[in-house]
Amino acid sequence: MTWRSWLKIGLLLAPGLGLILIFIGSVVYIAIAQSFGYYNLAGESGFSLEYWAIMFDRATYSRAISYSLYVGTASAFLAVAFAYPLAIWLRRPFSGSLMISAILKAPLLVHGLVAAFLYINIISYHGILNQLMQWLGIWDGPHRLQNDRNAVGVLILQTWKNMPFALLLLAGAVQSISDDVLDAAADLGAGPWDRFRRVIAPLSVSATQAALVIIFIGALADFSFQVIAGPVNKQSLSQLMVFFKGYGRWNDAAVVAVTLMGLAIVGSGVLAVFSRFVMRGGRLK
Amino acid sequence: MTRTGLNKILLWSLFGVCVIWLVVPFSMAILWSLVDPAEVWTPDKLLPPVMSFYRWTYLWQFSSLKTAMFNSYLLAPSAAILTLTLALPTAYALGRLKFPGKETAKLLALLPLVVPGFVTAIFFTAILFQLGLNAWRFGAILFAHSILFLPYAIRIMTVSFEQVRQDHIDAARDLGASPMARWYVAYVPALKPGIMATLLIVFIQSIEEFSIAFIVGAPNFTTIPTLLFTNLGQAFIRPNAAVLSLILVVPNIIFMLFLERVMRSANPALSSGKG
Questions:
Q1: Is residue B9 one of the residues assigned to a domain?
Q2: Which end of chain A is more exposed for a tag (fewer CB within 10 A), N or C?
């Protein structure tokens, strides 16, 4: 390629890819630099490990890490676990399958905050669920279900919101497996479970990995569901970061941000390798 | 049991779950939005004792709803047009030209999807402070939204550019069409669905975006999601939150139905940048 061709490609890539690299690159660079004491908005700037050292001693920081990892991983697995059987069921069209597919996609239309409101509306102290349980005679009085300690509410909301995304990806992958391949497997004596384990699962590894990773990153960095429906005695990493930023403690916020990005990269890698290993029947290649 | 019979049972079970999952929550939201403050809706009553549109008119007249709607509905189309404009040259290069490192470039274009939203929001604010640009919040959020949603636009438009048929371009050239005429007859018809899908997806993403609008815009610049967040937190009044929730969800349904029509032939996973 001539320098003219390179110049042309460079100019074409500049407004799109160029802006992404400059902007996201700056965000990542500033977060890392501020976590080590540089780019201070107030006071002296200079290399320091102090912010990391102080943060490692904080119980709220380690609690936020384990809590965010729990929400991220559990949400990713739950969404994929619900989406997988539905994707296989809807692989071949049948009467009513289009309607079901449309209904299942409905949460894509609903904003996460709206979903959170609808959910707390149902489970509130005098909400419809409490009233129903009392009317059925299962509970004597109303129970406090909102902001539960184990973040079940957050997991329900994350699964509800993310399952359609997982379904979109998995349905595409499962539908692209030709009937010939599955018929050949059946002719060779493979039952439904073997067809799933030896044909469908290995051929849909990439879609499963993409679904797990995208949902994991989103749920790991959750803020709004946590604030509205999450436990009051635990903070997610995003919540902790916003808390520090609110008090102008940019360096502390940066330490949490770098942790969040590091966990997103490492966690995504682990999930991708794990799903490949499991779905290929214990093989990585 | 036959496959058809099993499908029927599963279909009805899923229908029942969906009723609980969708119809009940939305019916509750509609009922709460109609509660008249003249008499409270207590747990012993199945329906609100007095129903009116008081909350709707009250919020419209006395809250920052009008401002939030104005901001959101100005921001979203602006972000859609700006994102499309920025994405087109890159998508052309990725879709039509051959060069070393093209696959890496395609992967790097997905970078904004990988960095958590709140990290982008908070450190974008830090950059604005450094540059002294934090005063013009509309411009800052517009710029941030455009960058954040570029991966969707680049992905969709790259696929669209790949679908432009070379024989159409060659035929137009052989018939003596100028570069501009070739663009109109060969490129535009193939790109139209992608352009519509990009505009709609970025519009919906921008209307829904919360973290950047919340961090960069607070406290002066309100959008519908940030107003809803405030009404779900410190200023929680259930009927008001119900009105705002319904206002936020209805346009989305209309736009998504439109999007479904536009993209009927496309692979939604690919088009939404998730493939």
A1: no
A2: C
In chain B, residues with a C-beta closer than 8 Å to the C-beta of A223 are: 118, 211
Mean residue pLDDT of chain A comes to: 88
CB interface of B with A, residues 34-63, below 8 Å: 42-43
Task: Check if B129 contacts A (Cβ < 8 Å).
Answer: yes
Alpha helices (H) along B21-99: 24-33, 54-62, 65-96
Q: Taking the complete model, does pTM exceed 0.90, yes or no?
A: no
Residue A56 has pLDDT above 60, yes or no: yes
* Sign, CA torsion A58/A62/A63/A64: positive
Residue B272 confidence (pLDDT): 41
Whole-number Å distance between alpha carbons of A87 and A74: 20
Calculate how close chain B gets to A99, using CA atoms only, in Å: 10
Residue of A nearest to B15 (CA): A100
The domain that contains B172 carries what CATH number? 1.10.3720.10
ipTM of the complex: 0.81
Selecting from B15, B105, B210 the residue whose C-beta is nearest the C-beta of A13 gives: B105
Domain holding B228, by residue range, is 64-271
**Taking Cα atoms as reference points, which of B220, B214, B199, B185 lies closest to residue B263?**
B199
The total domain count for chain B is 1
Minimum Cα–Cα distance from A11: chain B residue? B89
On whether residue B32 sits in a domain, the answer given is no
Is B251 domain-assigned? yes
